[in-house]
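WARN no homologs supplied; continuing
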Amino acid sequence: MNKEKIMLYATISFVIGFISLLFMDEKMIMKFAVPVIGLLFLILGIVFLIKHIKFLKITKEAEAIITKITKNQVKSRSSSGKIYHKTEVTAYVKYTVGGKDYKGMVSPYKKRGLEGDKVIILYDPNNPQKMRGKEGILPFIGFPIMAIMGLMVLILSLT
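OK structure emitted
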């Protein structure tokens, strides 16, 4: 399924859900919305983890050279209302697969590198333009936590 269809289905689901919430009282919203949110987190956590694992199974590693590093200051607000600044780093890279040169972007870039440094990237051999930085274990922790939290919300809302 392509991204446009996914966005269309997500938008339709959101609109239907929002319209249905307009006709519910507070008890019905809690009885309906909380389990749906839990189920949504459960499904998304599982889907993202499966997609990530599938991508890792087909990818190959390549050495890339950092051609440019950009840093952007982003304002964020904490739950207490405090404003803090965060620096988002993006590394632009070039790499060669099968004698052909490609360019890509690793964002957020977590390591401390300089232009000209070599980094390892993962690419899809069927579509070498599709690449990402070698992330480590974060997706293997984040996506299951998302699914577990969704399952907990779902179970607690149905009891």
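The chain has a mean pLDDT of 80.
OK
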